[in-house]
Write a structure and sequence with these properties.
Number of helices: 14
CATH class of the domain at 3-120: Alpha Beta
Distance between the termini: 53 Å
Number of strands: 19
CATH architecture of the domain at 3-120: 3-Layer(aba) Sandwich
Bound molecules: iron/sulfur cluster
Structural class: alpha/beta
Length: 435
Amino acid sequence: MNKIGFISLGCSKNLVDTEIMIGLCKEKGYTIVNDPEEAEAIIINTCGFIDDAKEEAISTILDAAKLKEDGKLKKLIVTGCLAQRYKEAVLEELPEVDLIVGVDEFPRIAELLAHETGACVTTNTAPYPEDAPRTLSTPSFMAYLKIAEGCDNHCTYCAIPSIRGPFRSRRMEDVIKEAKGLYESGVRELSVIAQDTTRYGVDLYGQSALPKLLKALAEIGFPWIRLFYTYADSITDELLEVMASHKNILPYLDIPIQHIDNTVLRRMGRKDTAEGIKNLISKIRTKLPEAVLRTSIIVGFPGETEDAFSSLCEFVKTGAFDRMGVFKFSPEDGTPAAKLPDQIDEDTKMERHEKLYTIAKSVSEEALRKKIGTEQEVLCEGFSDMFYVGRTKGDGAEIDGKVYFASEEDIAPGSFVKVRILATEEYDIIGEVTK
Ligand code: SF4
């Protein structure tokens, strides 16, 4: 068994684990194949923190299992959050799966896939595998940099702390060493990730070391550094100052607020308040006038009254955020929120999701239309059909819009160009390269 196929589901943090597993398997002499039909073993790195993600993981496993029918596929391996959270259920209900590997065991994947079957799922407290080789699966000019694992915030609706364990930062020198390697390998856009990036260093250095880390990353030379997964009440003046004083730290912030009603925020176990969030937004808008702000919002949380939902809709209409992900509350077993009284019925959740999604979409479209006529720096990702495709400083990979632009000259993927915005289409931009 030499040919290994990988399928990576879920978030960018999971993708980094997949890239490490690919690096480890290659180091052991395995051949990585892109076409699952060619694979003798398939490793599915799953997500498992909400229903939709669990369903996607199970259907992906069942699809891969079909490849066993003609005997080509010898081994089907499941890793990641679904494996960690539901090892017994996966073993019992998915007999097609040969091996289940937990979040602390994935660095042993090369040895486990050769010899083991059953479940290798233990704790969720291991440090980041600093010495493990990593093979990027993203285009060579961009990469994710995971600076910590786990989470200590314990929002009442979230299963991640029980899956990924306590918050544990990587040592700053290890993070910087990896970043320098990524830069030397040609990465030009570095996306900084963790469950909560603003908490970086609190466990190691007694206070957030994110501003200091970002400064050090900015000095390496990346043209673009993008910060994801910040926690509103942990965004400090020092962090905003570092962002404002380094041109290559993008004026882009992903700040999941989840809601704006204080009663709901308290029931979610969030440390934020409506006043705190609104003050923070106006401080950011002053300190970083070009900033593009993204957030995530949950509707239908237990006890969410019509008034609470209306205040959320009114808040979103203010345009405080430019980009929003809107999610229906999913009662996750083992979380406090799943046991809360006043659960909202599915129809009401759907209605509220539909309504807020529509409001959020029109707010985002309006924010984008305001950029028509301006000139934006664009990272070219490649060419598709008749246009070059890229992203502005305000577009995170995979989650935000694209720029489709024309150019007389050839433009290499990974290069930066100036684009005049001519039009917008939903979340996307149409433009042309300027001289
Ligand atoms: S901050 Fe809250 S929602 Fe995010 S991973 Fe931690 S517990 Fe979950």
